[in-house]
Structure formats: C-alpha cells, structure tokens
Design goal:
There is one protein chain. The chain is of the alpha+beta class. The chain has helices at 2-19, 37-53; strands at residues 29-30, 60-73, 75-86, 95-104, 107-116. The protein has a five-stranded antiparallel beta sheet with strand order 1-2-3-4-5. The longest helix is centred in the first third of the chain and has 18 residues, at 2-19.
C-alpha cells in the first residue's frame, strides 16, 4: 500500500506544479477571458479615469476590449487594448487605446492611456 500512496502523492505534486506558471511573478501573461466582469470593470474604470484626468473635454466611452495581459507584482497590473468612442474627431467613430491599470488592495491607479494603431505585442 505504501508504494501506491507514494505514487498518488507524486502524481498530485506533478499536476500542481504543471499548472503553475514557471514565472508567476513579474512576467506578463495573457488574460484568458477578457469578457469577465472584473476585466470589464477595470477597462471601464480606465476610460473613466482618463476622462477625469482630461477634465471630460473629450469624453470617451468603452466600446470593447480587444486584448489583455496581466502581471502579478505588488498587486496586479493590467495592460488592455480597448476600443473607445466619443469626443470629436477620430474618436467619434472609435479608436484603439492601450491602457495600463495597477490594482492593489481593491484600489485602481491609471498608469497610462494612449491611442494606438495595433494590438499588444
């Protein structure tokens, strides 16, 4: 019986280790489901913070999230490519933006929000 218990324990450890990323801290990882409520809320918050920082001069509205990455550090960093529309000029029809948001202890901080023309690398 002991060899069977050892084998079961060994397989369990192997399964757990295989499911953990080789570098869980510091490396950017793709967000597997950008349609989750939490990712949607982070993207909406990023657009709202951008609007606030620009005194609502060219108010943008989130249209969709195209791609996303996350990084576990002192909290979690999110790098999102979003389509946003509003304001005037090009943005009235929608433009792609890249934003980075840092989440720590339930608070969000906008690192940057900039117009882009291609997806995440």
């Amino acid at each position: 019986m002991k060899p069977v218990k050892f084998l079961v324990a060994l397989i369990t450890v192997a399964v757990v280790l295989s499911s953990v990323s080789a570098n869980p801290y510091g490396g950017w990882q793709p967000i597997k489901n950008i349609h989750t409520y939490r990712v949607q809320e982070i993207a909406k918050s990023a657009v709202a913070m951008h609007n606030w920082e620009n005194n609502f001069k060219h108010r943008l509205t989130l249209v969709s999230i195209r791609r996303g990455l996350f990084q576990v550090a002192d909290g979690v960093n999110y790098k999102l490519d979003v389509m946003a529309a509003g304001g005037n000029g090009l943005d009235s029809k929608g433009s792609m933006y890249r934003t980075e948001v840092h989440e720590r202890l339930g608070t969000l901080e906008l690192k940057f929000f900039t117009r882009i023309f291609e997806g995440l690398n």
